[in-house]
Amino acid sequence: MRLYESVFIARQDVSAQHVEALTKDFSAIIENGGGKIHKHEYWGLRALAYRVKKNRKGHYVMLNLEADNDTLREYERIMGLNEDILRFMNISIEEVEEGPSIMMQAQRTERTPRGGERGDREPRQDAPAPATDNKADTPAETEE
Question: Which one, out of 11, 65, 98, 112, has a CA that is 20 to 30 A from the CA of 79?
Answer without folding.
Answer: 98
